[in-house]
Amino acid sequence: MSRKGLMEQDLSKLDVTKLHPLSPEVISRQATINIGTIGHVAHGKSTVVKAISGVQTVRFKNELERNITIKLGYANAKIYMCEDERCPRPMAYKAYGSGKEDAPLCDVLGFENCRMKLLRHVSFVDCPGHDILMATMLNGAAIMDGALLLIAANESCPQPQTSEHLAAVEIMRLQHIIILQNKVDLIQENVAINQHEAIRKFIQGTVADNAPVVPISAQLKYNIDVVCEYIVKKIPIPERNFISPPNMIVIRSFDVNKPGYEVDEIRGGVAGGSILRGVLKVNQFIEVRPGIVVKDESGNIKCTPIYSRIVSLYAEQNELQFAVPGGLIGVGTTMDPTLTRADRLVGQVLGEVGSLPEVFVELEVNFFLLRRLLGVRTKGSEKQGKVSKLVKGEILMLNIGSMSTGARVLAVRNDLAKLQLTSPVCTSKGEKIALSRRVEKHWRLIGWGQIQAGTTLDIPPARVATCEWLNFGHSTQSQIIPALLSVIRWPQCYPVFANATVQLQCDSGNNVVSTVTTTASGVLSILLDSINYLLSSLLSTCRLVVTTPLASCNVNLSPTGILTSALQFVGNTVVGLLTVVNVAPVGFVLHIN
Length: 593
Known about the structure:
By secondary structure, this protein is α+β, with helices and mostly antiparallel strands.
């Protein structure tokens, strides 16, 4: 947790009512504002992010080979200003990576002994500019508070994706935009001035009408300090809600385990995204919706939310005890890593158990179509293609939050449409969505809409379990419980039980049937999921709150064949026999309500 020069976070002293985005313990470790980089392919979006933050967002092999962004990139940066008012602008502004201490020394000549003040901690969402990756860009736009629109000075303005991206951020109600005229080192001054006028003409009447246009060279880092000053002065930190139950939109998900890991080294899945409201805390129990989606024999969609627990929170390399709305964070969980591998959770919503929005399979939307297609190259004076009306039966692509999903038009009347979704989506009425249509083998933005109503899935609440213990011998309940839990999950659990303590709560309706109260020990990170994971896949989810002293209990387990030999499934009941060293064999029956 300790990192040189950064404020410490203490969960025991956390009061969410007193938090704000510029609280020292927040801004020191976590970005509190999201800024997107948008614009046409190869106009320098990733290079600008690297110039400001020092982080290379193009990380994947195929991205590096082709020199384009394919997945959403992300990087955090801290923006400082010299505390000495005599320090000349814009050199007084400086950006560093998010691991930089909170009060570094100024590096402007003559002011080397002055300290710098941390003004902003920014998360950059680096969007792809290639036309076939428009869906990925729209997913990134869902979490932006402001945007840097990149326009290359050595090309005519506007390029196809320049206009398409600008329309996309208008749909997302993005008010705060800074235009960066990049690559000015490649052209002569009079060409730059002419293009500046072309940019002004292009943005006239759009949301970017009054946006500043800053000439820069991202490669040479020319005028990057000016960009930092504009970010501080032109993009305000939006008001954040710290009080409500947490709600996070997932834009990336990972399996952090490398091939060849030993069983006891395996870690749970990681979800990356931005918290829209509320505060996430380490050790908090969470739910992910829609979760695991399947079709039954009749072809009806069913979804099972994933229940898990937060074991770690990170903002890049900065470890957090709690995370607030704003910049991108990584949430380490006890989820099975196969569920988070290769961005499988993208588009899902993570939050407090029982507080997430409903899951929709059909939507009724109030929509608005663009007059003409954006982002399509035209020959000579040929006009851009008109956007035709929605037709019953046609297939669209919807972007809802960070989820991209197909949708069939079931009915259209005036500006209302009924849409059947390919995949269920966790969202709310009033949410804005982007509509795209297949044009010349590419998905093109044709308009936007707002959710008015819809058909939701019935999601049963987290199931609860009661335990019935048989043949206690001379063992105690507090010894048996962790043995049971260690059986119902990966074998790497069992070594951590030495000198640990666990609590079991069994609910029946709203009544606690049986509780063994103790203190938690941190190493029991997998326990809630232990029961959930197995029962959600084989039966249904149950909810156990685990925290019991083990004394000298040792669990005798074989690392292979544990589930088949130790457990039998009979209807809604799990029956098993455990052997605890130096203790008589213990039988148990776990009833799932």
